[in-house]
Amino acid sequence: MGNITDFPNLLHHKNRYRVNLFYGSSPQAGGLLSQRIGVQKEGNLCFAGLCRTFPINPTLFLQLGGQKRFQMKLIITSLSLLAGATAFAIDVTTPAIPASADFFGIEIGAIQLTISLYLLGYGLGQIPMGLLADHFGRRVTVLTAMSLFVVFAIIASVSSNPEILLLMRLLQGFCGASGPVISRAMARDLTEGADTGRLLGLMTAGLGGVMIVAPLVGALLLDFYGWRAPFFASGVFAAVAVLMIWANVGETNLERPESRISERFITGLKAFAGSKQGLLGALYIGLAFCSLIAFVTLSSELFIRQYGTSEIGYAIIFSAASVGYAMGGLACRRLIRQHSSLRLTHSAAGIFGFVALAMLITLVSGTDSYGAMIAVMVISFLGVGAMLTAGSTLALESLPKTAGMTAGIIGSFQILLGGVF
Q: Residues 6 or more apart from 43 whose CB is under 8 A from it?
């Protein structure tokens, strides 16, 4: 990696400067080191969210070139873990539902409320977490909320009655909403344009990996340690994410206006309502989430009962579909440099059109192909991964100053649509 050789702009904003630095022989030949580097007049430097103390001296800026790749890998890993903590907490505990129902001596339908209440809290927490992140800062909000998430996970794992377990899962979901909301907002703070889509694509791929691994981890923990272990594991995963964010990602929202939180809320809503890109991105993401919910809730009955697939066989099919989800995010990451987020969003919508057409042909023709249904599921998951990446980029790139609220509104809308669906 080359040294930084160009300082194309230095923008003063109150007590901070925003600096765009390039490495390589020129901005065109090299690459953007960090699209947002906050420098206070006193000499506090934030390199991609990593705050250090330096005098404002261009010579010292040059020394950051060799550290860029490793630091950015740590940041990407930290954000990916943060984004995946909520999904892990759902998927890892799913295998433990029957065993926990047996332990408490209640119907399995009652203990399934651990998922329903978790999702309820998750939906209710999206906008408040985004608003708090815009007002007080991303770092303090997510570290506080996810630390509480860990505490609630531990209490849930040692619960002596189902009521405490259900309450802790509700609170877990509320605090866990900070993970995906603030990780998206941080991604928008650190990047612009196509780079936002590339970062979100990596985070989507990481989430696909969580969908593959978490149910298997939950099943193994259940076999070896009992039903409490998967609930405890959800806290361990979140604790790792908290430590990674604390160690590797500083405050990324450096331009918070000095206004009351109620004013921030109204400003965020007005900005989102007035953004065609934001509304379109939220709509597409909501529809993609409905598709995901449909396959998650109906595919097990279809493959296990209708096709006679074993539980292990179905787990393999679901893992294969989750690979498609990850590939959708990676494909969007690669394509977003050549195509706009709007075009990619429309292309992802075309994938769902193809899936709907294939399902219609299957129903009308009366064919009952096991392989065809697997293919349709994998393609649908690929479309979901691509849509979540492109749709989020489309919405967030137009609303940088209210990225937290925007991410929260998108999350609430997709949960609402999924619940109605």
A: 53, 54, 55, 56
In angstroms, the first-to-last Cα distance of the chain is: 49
Distance separating alpha carbons of residues 357 and 355, to the nearest angstrom: 5
- In sequence order, which residues have a C-beta less than 8 Å from that of residue 221 and are 6 or more positions away? 92, 96, 229, 230, 233
Helices (H), 63-112: 68-91, 97-104, 108-111
- 232: buried, middle or exposed (CB in 10 Å: 19+, 13-18, 0-12)? middle
Most distant CA pair in the chain, distance: 73
Q: Please name which of 118, 230, 132 lies closest in space to residue 171, comparing C-alpha atoms.
A: 118
Structure tokens at 259: 């206004």
Q: Contacts by 257-260 with C-beta closer than 8 Å and gap 24+?
A: 257/401
Contact partners, residue 262, CB within 8 Å, separation at least 6: none
Predicted confidence (pLDDT) per residue in 149-189, tens digit: 999 999 999 998 999 999 999 999 999 999 999 998 888 88
Q: At what angle do helices 68-91 and 194-225 cross, to 10 degrees?
A: 50
pLDDT digits (tens, 9 = 90+) for 333-384: 888 878 888 888 888 888 877 777 777 676 666 666 777 778 888 888 888 8
Asked whether the beta carbons of 36 and 185 are under 8 A apart, the reply is: no
In terms of Cβ atoms closer than 10 Å to its own Cβ (0-12, 13-18, 19+), residue 254 is buried
Angle at 409 between CA 405 and CA 413, to 5 degrees: 175
Compute the residue count for the chain: 421
128-138 residue pLDDT tens: 998 898 888 89
Looking at every residue in the chain, the average pLDDT score rounds to 76
* Residue 38 β-bridge partners: 18, 46
In this structure, what token pair is assigned to residue 418?
């999924």
- The secondary element (H helix, E strand) that includes residue 405 is helix 403-420
Three-class SS of residue 30? Answer: coil
Which pTM was predicted?
0.73
DSSP state of 24: S
**DSSP E strand stretches across 130-237:** none
Report residue 210 CA to chain centroid gap. 11
- Can you tell me which residue has the tokens 């794992």? 157
User: Across the strands, what pairs with 39?
Assistant: 17, 45
